What does this fold into?
Amino acid sequence: MSNKSTIQAPKLPRVLDHLIWNDELEEEGYIRNAKFQNCNIESQNTKKVIWDSVVFSNVIFIGSSFPFAELTDVVFEECDLSNVDFSESILHRVVIKNCKLIGTNFSEAAIRNVLFENSVANYSSFGFANCKQIKYYQCSLRNADFYEAKMESLQLEDCQLDQVNFAGVTLKGVDLSSNHFNSIVISLELLKGCTVTKEQAISFAKLLGIVLADE
It folds into this structure.
């Protein structure tokens, strides 16, 4: 299947309620048709939150954990989500744009129609995640971990991929040619069908122990 499939955008109502994060919202764990802007959300450790049609703009998440969350039609813009735990969560029609995601945990998450754009996601974790229709555009993913993640219709465009761990990830149909890396971790038997540049092909050949003759 081609990895150029269209990513579905979040379906948001024309008008969103501008809310202030407070104790009542924290305890309820269900937020719908809302926008949070220019605020800090600190030390929230809530399982199974549900965010439906929500926009977070310039929000800093500090020491927060939201495992088993359900995020549908959600936008994060100019947010700091570093080290936030979204493990085993469900993300559907989500945009993460101009955000900081250093060390963010998406391991074992179910991810559908999610766009990461112009964001720094170094050391983030997607291990064992189940992903379909996911795109990274102009992102830094240095040292990110995708170990054994299931990737269908994965798009990577103009991203920094140095030291990314793709071990156990099938890269058939994935185009790496516009991306940048000195070295990445891959399972060579799962590389078949991946599009790479000549220089990238040479680096992969070296991983096989192939000695290249001088031209």
User: Anything to note?
Assistant: The CA atoms of residues 8 and 113 lie 5 Å apart. The chain has one domain: 17-207. Helices lie at 23-28, 198-207. Residues 17-207 form a domain with the Pectate Lyase C-like fold (CATH 2.160.20.80).
